[in-house]
Automatic annotation (TrEMBL), chain A:
It is a multi-pass membrane protein. Its main location: membrane. It comes from the Bacteria. It is found in: Cell membrane. The lineage of its organism: Bacteria, Bacillati, Bacillota, Bacilli, Bacillales. GO terms for molecular function: transmembrane transporter activity. This is Monosaccharide ABC transporter membrane protein (CUT2 family). Keywords: Cell membrane, Membrane, Transmembrane, Transmembrane helix. One of its GO terms (cellular component) is plasma membrane. The keyword Transferase does not apply.
UniProtKB/TrEMBL annotation, chain B:
InterPro entries: AAA+_ATPase, ABC_carbohydrate_import_ATPase, ABC_transporter-like_ATP-bd, ABC_transporter-like_CS, P-loop_NTPase. This is Simple sugar transport system ATP-binding protein. Keywords: ATP-binding, Cell membrane, Membrane, Nucleotide-binding, Repeat, Sugar transport, Translocase, Transport. Residues 8-243, 260-502 form the ABC transporter domain. One of its GO terms (cellular component) is plasma membrane. One of its GO terms (molecular function) is ATP hydrolysis activity. The keyword Translocase applies. CDD domains: ABC_Carb_Monos_I, ABC_Carb_Monos_II. It is a peripheral membrane protein. The keyword ATP-binding applies. SMART domains: AAA (SM00382). It comes from Saliterribacillus persicus.
Automatic annotation (TrEMBL), chain C:
It holds the Pfam family BPD_transp_2. GO terms for cellular component: plasma membrane. It is found in: Cell membrane. This is Monosaccharide ABC transporter membrane protein (CUT2 family). It comes from Saliterribacillus persicus. It is a multi-pass membrane protein. Keywords: Cell membrane, Membrane, Transmembrane, Transmembrane helix. The keyword Transmembrane helix applies. CDD domains: TM_PBP1_transp_AraH_like.
């Protein structure tokens, strides 16, 4: 029964993803083909993975935050800040070789983790609700990013910087390796250590968790710092992609896309059970949607309308209420619905 | 009165939840001018029956007749419009609103299209005075104690022209005076022709106030009886479905135990302003120390200080002779202390997690992030304790929130037993659970203490304390009043006198 | 979390909001010449009238424990609908204005219905609404549509004189009327009290037999209506329709409501507080303009700092009152 539930939770997101990809196939029969050119694998699927990398990263961090009954609205601003720090660092350090790159990456990640820690402190030590606590940085962070770049779009002329977002390793975009690494790290931390259990316990009932001897404050700190770290990595990739930093527009709406990816992936905003693989699929759905819209020639601006419709469809399909009302199945009583939608179980 | 037309008849009611049949063919007949008890253990289906009646859950089968007409009640609002009012077990009011609003919301008094606050305040005041409650009705509900909130909830239910009044465990947080007050109100309403449903775990109260009762067991209908015609023992055995041999056994639980006079934990004028006055207490190895006292006497507050759940502002704790300070429950757990909170739902279970995960939570927390207990090992531990404590259903992968109260309590107990505690603080472990589970838990306590575990046992039921404890400490008005050795000289009257205070 | 707030807590954030406004205004008057004039104050109302209307709707949503992310996009959509109907379809304002209001209300109503009937999270539903409304405005046109119509000129240019030389605009009048109506709704109608009850505990509200579903749908409909009124005012102000209008305005609105003392967890707050919240945001911008040397991004940082201040203040009040209650 547990397995069935698990399947039904991931089933709908996978179906949606497959449908979107198949739609592409209709418009572009070569959509699934992957070519080997100049030592690189090229194809729409690789492209989706590559372009989706920042969103996947941020969604991974967001999943853990949401599992603790939190939310991190600041990730978009952290992306902007990370991009600004990275770009400014490599441009202001005179140096050849990889030195400046390592310094920039190191500095950016440290700052991102500190910024995440700031959110964590507000939430766990001062007891501010997460949506409010992270709202502060969401608003102020963009101002800070602009402060760093002096309000201008900073262009980077230092070539190694491009490797992060645009480089290739073993014929695959380097960003895919970054994503894989972070995903594996998150999976290891949550499924091969007890951190996952603690996160779910704290998200499901914080007071009971405290009385059971869990240090919920540290666990919350940890997830917000991890989310900051993910946003930092994502910010570097995005800024490296375009070889510039734009404090005003970099990472705009990423927090919303990431939350969307998490929810589509079957993790409830009420906290508790989380599903990292679901989040991965959720992020891929959002990215394929964007790619699809470009590739089938619909005006890019209508992207938003389609995104809205997909969001609603996925949420409705996940809503037991909806399933009961429309399909007449799934006899669940009203008050249990919220709980039911959280019933994802680890494999 | 048997000839009177019933006000409400529920026939062959069926209610199913995913995987559980909560009610199968339950009947209930309510007559005007009668107080009707619904009796049953936890998980018998009392609450579900009430929620079905008041439209919170839809009915999956059966029929409801109200004043001779067939009705389908789809929402609490519809139920209220029909004249069915409910006061739920957990006070279901809005703490962010004023007392007046809580009484009137949904049926406010208007004047010229505007809410007439003055009139509502006055009426609310009058209504509460009828319940012998004189409070400032303009204050927020959150500024009053749970007992007062309960009375306000009843006032709200009375304010509608109710024909059926359902009181779901209304007395569980009231003291004796408040109960008497409530009962006089119930009698008054009964004489006015209301049909009243009364649910309570206190048998005394059932026999004191009700006229008729319906017994449920495991979601099934057992029967309807006149209260005065059914002896206590018969009633209890109908509720639990077995003869009461085990109840008697407990009587001898505390006997023939070699009590060790070796202190495990003691306090020296430990206290917290506004919670509990400084107290000095000693808990010996392998002894069961009972904490008796009325609601609000400071029992939970005392226990929380010993566990590090709250921080004392005075005094010290000595553990095995060494002074120690617990700044969090985590530290107390490292010193092999366990604590089962009285609020199982809000401070005990982790609803999203399975029985297995709930069980291993504390021990895993003790191990930390990286000493991960493998899934197989977790299963093993869970299976062991499921059979040890007779947890039903015996499925470690069941979500804990789908278990009945008694079984949830056992899971929480298992959570602590797994850590091999040297001191187990049990705050009302038997509250709100069925008699069978109660007996099992008390037996378990005795066995544990024989094996050397110290137990601090908090209970509102004096009988339980007298049965199980080696010594009893009595609290009154946030003060540790007196300690007794539990011997023949210690009687219920003696304890009660100490709890009540005065001469 | 809000279970133990004593009475005094109810008004404290409001007092703090008003005090901060007065302090900031005092600071400006002291530092810059010409700051202390009635017109500078009235300009706060004039420049932020659309935000005031948005904040009113948002206040109800937040008090009920929800959130509405769609308001900024609804402004853009309203401006596009108004512009395209007026300029491309040559319809009279008598038809255009009601249609615009209907569009916002319908979006709000649909959002509320989805939230209620399918038990979806307000955050997600209004997020979809946000995408949808902005997407739809691009569907109407990707380009800006300038509005050239006597009605819009009249609405934009008419000055209502008060206090000698000073004046307000029709938009301010509309905004203030909506504020007054909303204060009345919040305090003196069943609907208003139900909003507070739902914010306190939706489960309790349900068990008390309150029309939770209807109220929730109405709350979001009202917020959508306010957003379209705000959209019209914004259109008067900009005299154009554009899909990028009011980008991120939902954030400003939420910030204003929080700075206005409304608890983001729901259950407590005042419409009047939100009015002052908007005025505080306005005065930050005015000060930055007067300061001259400060770049625009300082506005964001200042709002962030103020949010922090308020949020921490709310926490301190809550913690203090809890302590006080425990020791009494």
């Amino acid at each position: 029964m547990v397995n069935l539930l698990m399947k039904s939770k991931l089933l709908w997101p996978i179906v949606v993803l497959v449908v979107i990809l198949l739609i592409n196939l209709i418009f572009d029969p070569s959509f699934f083909s992957i070519d080997y050119r100049n030592g690189k694998l090229v194809g729409s699927l690789v492209d989706i993975l590559n372009r989706g990398a920042p969103l996947i990263l941020i969604s991974i961090g967001m999943t853990l935050v949401i599992a603790t009954k939190g939310i991190d609205l600041s990730v978009g601003s952290v992306i902007a800040m990370a991009g600004a720090i990275g770009a400014i660092t490599v441009t202001s350090i005179d140096g050849e070789g990889l030195g400046p790159l390592f310094i920039a990456v190191g500095l950016t990640l440290i700052v991102s983790i500190i910024v995440g820690g700031w959110n964590g402190i507000l939430v766990s030590r001062i007891g501010v609700q997460p949506i409010v606590a992270t709202l502060i940085l969401m608003v102020a962070g963009r101002g800070i990013a602009q402060l760093i770049t002096g309000g201008q779009i900073t262009t980077v002329y230092y070539d190694p910087y491009q490797f992060l977002g645009g480089g290739y390793l073993f014929a695959l975009p380097f960003s895919i390796f970054i994503v894989t690494f972070v995903l594996l790290l998150a999976l290891f931390l949550t499924r091969r250590t007890s951190l996952g259990l603690f996160i779910e316990a704290v998200g499901s009932n914080p007071e009971a968790s405290r009385l059971a001897g869990l240090n919920s404050k540290n666990i919350m700190m940890m997830v917000y710092m991890f989310s900051g770290f993910c946003a930092g990595v994502g910010g570097l990739i995005l800024s490296s992609n375009v070889m510039s930093a734009d404090g005003n527009n970099a990472g705009l709406w990423f927090e919303l896309d990431a939350i969307l990816a998490v929810v589509i992936g079957g993790t409830s905003l009420m906290g508790g059970r989380f599903n990292l693989m679901g989040t991965l699929i959720g992020a891929l759905i959002i990215q394929s949607l964007t790619t699809t819209i470009y590739s089938i020639g619909v005006p890019a601006e209508t992207n938003l309308v389609i995104k809205a419709v997909v969001v609603l469809i996925v949420c409705l399909l996940q809503s037991p209420e909806f399933r009961r009302k429309i399909f007449g199945t799934d006899k669940v009583n009203k008050n249990r619905v919220k709980k039911e939608s959280e019933g994802v179980t680890l494999s | 009165m048997d000839n009177a037309q019933p006000r409400l008849v529920m026939k062959k009611i069926v209610k199913e939840f995913p995987g559980v049949r909560a009610l199968s063919g339950v009947n209930l007949t309510l007559y005007p001018g009668e107080v009707h008890a619904i009796m049953g253990e936890n998980g018998a289906g009392k609450s579900t029956l009430i929620k079905v009646l008041t439209g919170v859950y839809p009915i999956d089968g059966g029929a409801v007749e109200y004043e001779g007409k067939k009705v389908i009640i789809k929402s609490p609002l519809e139920a209220q419009l029909l004249g069915i009012s409910t006061v739920y077990q957990e006070v279901n009011l809005c703490t962010n609103l004023s007392v007046t609003e809580n009484i009137f919301i949904g049926r406010e008094i208007k004047k010229n299209g505007k809410l007439n606050w003055r009139k509502m305040h006055n009426q609310a005041k009058k209504l509460l005075e009828g319940l012998q409650l004189q409070i400032d009705v303009t204050k927020l509900l959150s500024s009053y104690s749970v007992a007062i909130q309960q009375m306000i909830a009843i006032a709200r239910a009375l304010n509608v022209s109710a024909k059926v009044l359902i009181l779901d465990e209304p007395t569980s947080s009231l003291d004796r005076d408040e109960v008497n007050q409530l009962f006089s109100v119930i009698r008054k309403l009964k004489n006015e022709g209301l049909a009243i449903v009364f649910i309570s775990h206190f048998l005394d109260q059932i026999y004191e106030i009700t006229d008729r009762l319906t017994v449920l067991r495991n979601g099934e209908y057992i029967g309807e009886y006149m209260t005065k015609d059914i002896p206590r023992m018969d009633l209890v055995s109908k509720m639990i479905g077995k003869e009461l041999v085990e109840m008697k056994k407990i009587e001898s639980l505390a006997e023939n135990k070699t009590s060790l006079n070796q202190s495990f934990l003691s306090t020296e004028l430990l206290g917290l302003q506004g919670k509990i006055d400084p107290f000095s207490i000693q808990i010996n190895k392998g002894e069961i120390l009972g904490l008796a006292g009325l609601l609000g006497a400071g029992r939970t507050e005392l226990a929380r200080l010993l566990f590090g759940a709250d921080q004392p502002d005075k005094g010290h704790i000595h553990l095995k002779g060494k002074q120690i300070k617990f700044s969090s429950p985590k530290q107390a757990i490292y010193e092999k202390i366990g604590f089962c909170s009285e609020n199982r739902k809000s401070e005990g279970i982790i609803p999203d997690l399975t029985v297995r995960e709930n069980m291993i939570l504390v021990i895993q927390g003790k191990y930390g992030w990286f000493r991960f207990i493998s899934k197989e090992k977790q299963r093993e531990i869970a299976d062991e304790y499921i059979s040890l404590l007779n947890i039903n259903p015996a499925n470690p992968e069941q979500l804990i929130e789908n278990l009945s109260g008694g079984n949830q309590q056992k899971v929480i107990l298992a959570r602590w037993l797994i850590t091999n505690p040297e001191l187990l603080i049990l705050d009302e472990p038997t509250r709100g659970i069925d008699i069978g589970a109660k007996t099992e838990i008390m037996k378990l306590m005795t066995n544990l203490s024989k094996e050397g575990t110290s137990i601090l046992f908090i209970s509102s039921e004096i009988e339980e304390i007298l049965r199980a404890c080696d010594r009893v400490a009595v609290l009154r008005d946030r003060k540790l009043e007196k300690e007794f050795n539990n011997n023949e000289e210690l009687t219920q009257q003696k304890l009660m006198k100490e709890m009540a205070g005065g001469v | 979390m809000i279970q133990r707030l004593p009475l005094g807590y109810k008004q404290l954030p409001l007092v703090a909001t008003v005090s901060i406004f007065i302090l900031m205004y005092g600071f400006g008057s002291f530092r810059y010449t010409g700051f202390l004039s009635s017109q500078v104050f009235l300009n706060l109302l004039i420049d932020n009238s659309f935000l005031i209307v948005l904040a009113v709707g948002m206040t109800f949503v937040i008090i009920s424990g929800g959130i509405d992310l769609s308001v900024g996009s609804v402004i853009a959509l309203t401006s596009m609908v108004a512009a395209s109907l007026t300029m491309n379809a040559n319809l009279s304002p008598l038809i255009v204005v009601p249609i615009c209001l209907l569009v916002g209300s319908i979006i709000g109503g649909v959002q509320g219905s989805l939230i209620h009937f399918f038990n979806l999270q307000p955050f997600i539903v209004t997020l979809a609404g946000m995408f949808l409304a902005r997407g739809l405005s691009y569907v109407i046109s990707v380009e800006t549509i300038a509005i050239d119509h006597p009605f819009f000129d009249f609405m934009a240019n008419t000055r209502i004189p008060i206090l000698g030389d000073s004046f307000i605009t029709i938009s301010v009048l509309i905004a203030l009327i909506i504020v007054i109506i909303a204060v009345f709704i919040g305090h003196s109608t069943k609907f208003g009290r139900n909003v507070y009850a739902i914010g306190g505990s939706e489960q309790s509200a349900n068990l008390m037999g309150l029309p939770v579903g209807r109220t929730k749908i109405l709350i979001y409909t009202f917020s959508g209506f306010c957003a379209s009124v705000g959209g019209l005012i914004f259109t008067f102000y900009m005299r154009s329709g554009y899909g990028l209008h009011a980008n991120g305005m939902e954030l400003d609105t939420i910030a204003a409501v929080v700075i206005g003392g409304t608890l983001l967890t729901g259950g407590a707050g005042y419409v009047a507080g939100s009015l002052f919240g908007v005025l505080i945001l306005g005065i930050i911008q005015t000060i930055i303009v007067y300061e001259g040397t400060l770049s625009s991004w300082w506005t964001k940082i200042a709002i962030g700092v103020l949010l922090l201040l308020f949020i921490v203040l709310q926490r301190i009040i809550v913690i203090r009152s809890e302590k006080k209650q425990n020791s009494s």
